[in-house]
């Protein structure tokens, strides 16, 4: 029995990958970050990026009642790193 348990534990350890794959900055973390950056935002936006920037200057400091005129899905993406 202990030998069988040891085999199962070793099999699980080898199949789950190394910590450098799963941790912060690991290969899977970086792939997920890339996918999230490239994932298209909602395309049903009434404003283009220039209109949003013009209308919503200082968005982060606006009161919430004023933010309604600035749909979040229209907000321009930050520049790529």
Proportion of beta-strand residues:
under 5%
How much helix, percentage-wise, in residues?
Answer: 40-55%
H/E series: HHHHH
Q: How large, in whole angstroms, is the Cα Rg?
A: 23 Å
Q: What is the structural class?
A: mainly alpha
Specify the number of helices: 5
Distance between the termini: 53 Å
Largest sheet: none
Return residue spans where pLDDT drops below 50 for at least 5 consecutive residues. none
The overall average pLDDT, rounded, is: 77
Number of domains: 1
- Net shape: rod-shaped
| Strand segment tally | 0
Please give a handful of descriptors for the protein shown:
rod-shaped, 5 helices, 0% strand, 51% helix, mainly alpha, 81 residues
Secondary-structure map:
Elements: H1 2-15, H2 19-22, H3 27-38, H4 49-55, H5 64-67
